[in-house]
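Journal club prep — side note

Before the paper discussion, L.F. wants everyone to see what a predicted structure for a comparable chain looks like in token form. Sequence:
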Amino acid sequence: MNNPASSNAFLTRLRQGLDQGGFGIDDALTLLLPLFRQITEAHEHGRVAPLHGTASLTLTSAGTLAVAPDSFSSPRRNESRVSELLGPQSHAVEVIGESNRTTDLDDGLQESARLDVSASSENITKPVFLTGYQSWEHAVGHHDPVTDIFSLGLLLASLACGFDFNDLDDLELFAAHRDNLFELNRRLHPVIARVIVQMTELNRHKRAQDLGQMLRSLENYRDQPLDLDLSSIKAGATADRRRLIQENLRDRLFEISRRNRLIYFKPTLQMINLTVASVPLVMDVRSIRLEQLFVWHTELASALTEGRPVSLGKYLRLEDAPYIPGVLDKIIADSRRDRAEYGFAQLRLVLCFLRWHNLKETPAERIHSPLLLLPVELVKRKGVRDAYVLTPTSNEAEVNPALRHHLKTLYGVNLPESVDLQQTSLEAFHESLQNQIRASEPGVTLEKIDRPKIELIHAKARQRLDQWKKRQRARPSRPVATPAVTHSYDRENYRPRGLLLFLEKIRPQPCPLSNLVGAPPPPRLPGLSPHSDADSVAAQDSSAGASTPESVMEKSSEHYVLRDGDGSNPYHWGFDLCSLTLGNFHYRKMTLVRDYAKLGDDDIVNPAFDSVFSLEPKRHDDAPRPPLPLREQFPVIPCDAAQAAAVARSRDGLSFIIQGPPGT
């Protein structure tokens, strides 16, 4: 080892960790993040840290790295020497490394030495990695916040990869694999690797300039999306690399978060649960017939499978749910707008919901996800009573692409992209899904819900008449003169006079327990889930009669509510065919998923695609192009010389970037 310095706190801690098998990412960040915060605060006050090596680093009582508060100093500048070492930048090629190779013809041996690594800081002629955790800028008398970023990057790389940069061999190994640190540490997180590369650039112009941004990246590295790492792909396997890149681009289209309603479904006024809207309000639930409900029964399944129009008026209870026409009109308008703007409609009928649990992350949470979506059209036919007609546009139901990707990633469950309803029944699809789930976890039960589940509630209301009369007598008499209604039309306190008069003098007050004492059931409101008690109402009233004392009034009633099954058991899942929901599901990006899948299956060779994602250095050519002859120029609007030159360059068939404005 060069510079052993046993009293150095950082080196002592580094060697202890290496002797125990190396540092984990969390261990390294626990040591370094307090130091990052301390130096970030110093940079905000125009000071730099004493990071010329590691002698100034100390261990706090909490076991973290720090520097003495009084050791910060003002920046030192030597801009001329720095510019001299960086030299003029080539516009034709980019130099990414230099090395010496020595071949012994007698022995048949070849030795290679990198020229960007040096053990001595004297007489350096180019930016190099120096041993001793120092920057080449320190060697030329230049020290500013960007220099501190380089030093901190070396400390992070040393702990994350298990290197001692006092050792020249370790430093050369790091420099050789700096662009692909996964060869040094397979368990290295991609975000950490990206931060190390950005902080340890020899070229100051390419190095990260903001230490605070690097700190935020390290603090939240598990929450950040991972970029595609082309360096981990073998350069020779072109077809495999192309397929892997296409799969990565495809997977980035999926958003597995709570904002994705294709996975975490929530009912809104933009959709309508046709099953709930078809449940009648009856005195006795035994009078409800299955063919009256909009569920996956034989008659409705046959019509949807064969593509026949279905009149919703046959099933929906418009008299009991007056919100239905308004919601259906909104769905039709949204569908027409999507077709006009995007060229295709996104109206879907959810044939089946999957009620499931993420046993690996949130086992107690019940997740409701659409599973099968059937493309349909909805039209409104004018008449004395308007009619709404639903017509399937295909006999193939799409398997929810976001859910299919999520289940494959989470559980390894492989679902098809679509299900042909004429060839595969939903019962067979349910059995196939159940077998795949049980193959990995036999404890999970996937129940097929093909009949609406209801829960009967026997309610009873009892009130003593003498207590009611006593409360009436104790109630103060209403004053003759009522205060004036205070109204306001201010934006922050909008209370129009007409609304206040209605609320105070006209609107009837609801009677407590009105449903239970014989009042007619209120209309159902929109936006209620099938699990709400308001989705079903009282069905039967009966008086206590002679068995009740004369001074007591008692009423009883029977209610029923729809249930989707046991939601508290994380191992009891539901394959729900009784929540057919109509709505516009906005997943336009999912059409690209099918395109990427087809590209991967067909392995289509595209030179432009391979050039964009190539591992080879990009060809750089700034040679001016001769202007195009006038007979070959077809400008749709007047253009200047720079724009005409860009058009001429495009004739080469090579990709390039135009930076603007103007003219982009």
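L.F.'s comment for the group: The mean pLDDT is 77. Keep this in mind when we get to the figures.
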